[in-house]
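Thought: the user wants the 3D structure for the chain below. I'll pass the sequence to the structure tool as-is, report back what it returns, then summarize two notable features.
Action: structure_tool
Action Input:
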Amino acid sequence: MPAELPDVLRQHLQAAVDEMEREIRDQVPEYASADGGEYARKVERTVSDTVAFFVDSVDHPTSDPRRITELYMRLGEEEARHGRSLAALQNAMRVSSQVACRRFIKDAYRLGWSRETLGQLTDSLFLLLARAADAAAQGYAREQGQLATERERRRDRLRDLLVAEPPPGHEAISELAVAARWELPKSIALVALPAGRRRGPDPAARRAGRLGGADPLPRGARPGGPRPGPAVAALRRLGTSALGPTVPIGQGAVSLRWARNALTLAERGLLPGDGPFRCADHIAALATLAADELVGATAEAALGPLLELPPARRQPLAETLLTYLQCGDNAVIAAERLHIHEQTVRYRLRRITELTGGRFTEPDGQLDLMLMLSWLVRTGRAERTA
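Observation:
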């Protein structure tokens, strides 16, 4: 490098910085406003410090670049903290390098620098900018990792708060939701998964706004609404699961409790079909589960001799009576559902009338009777010795 080169560069240092700042505001939308705000001013100070360091490094080639790389690392961290991409910073660096190269070329012609000097100067500039860009990317990635970890911790706390009993105040939930970057819906539905289930990230579930859990009784929260939406499709890929009823924020414990009840029934094979199982589709089954002991204790008094029959005879009679009541006392529809002849249904109903004294024909007790029969059939007790 020519000995006079650093002094020449220093003479035009402020003019170069001013030109870079103007070009940045013109070409980078994030800095388009008149003053650019504190964020823009910080980047402009960084540009000024970078240019000053570069000129000093021409005079002292062994200068330690750590001061500049640490500066860009902190700038990258700040970009991540504010949820911005590195694109604006990278564009600002690109514009600055273009300005610098144009000025180098003009000075080379004006002062008669050799092509070797111009090449060394631009190579040094791009080397410094490459180090600065790498430092910004490292700071950005490191801060993103820390933010992701902290966000997950906050989401874990939010998930626990949503199912707490007694329910917390809405303000406490709202504050934690903002900190966890989870858009707070008006209602939620809780999901129960089998204990010990290992779950990887699921993009579809994330798009549905799900809050996951990895405790011994895994559960997740999803925004509630009239339709299950994409969350159910995501849950289907997880295997057996149960979706609780949609409840207002603050009543998550209610939704979770019923989701776990539904999961219990599903794991015992007492719910038809494949998961995910929605509580709203199995209200009768869940109601009988909640009253399991009561139904079991009173079934004998209500059904009497029917329970004393051998299982092979008791099972078809119980299923026929349950289906008949579900079909609104219509033997034709009941026969179609059971895939048997209508006369077979009527024969079985007469046999049940003989055994029970015709109590199933009394409107007042039909709902109780349907719950008991549903309990018998679903639990398999109609197939086994009572």
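Final Answer: Structure generated. Residues 198-209, 213-218 have pLDDT under 50 and may be disordered. The chain is about 65% helix and 5% strand.
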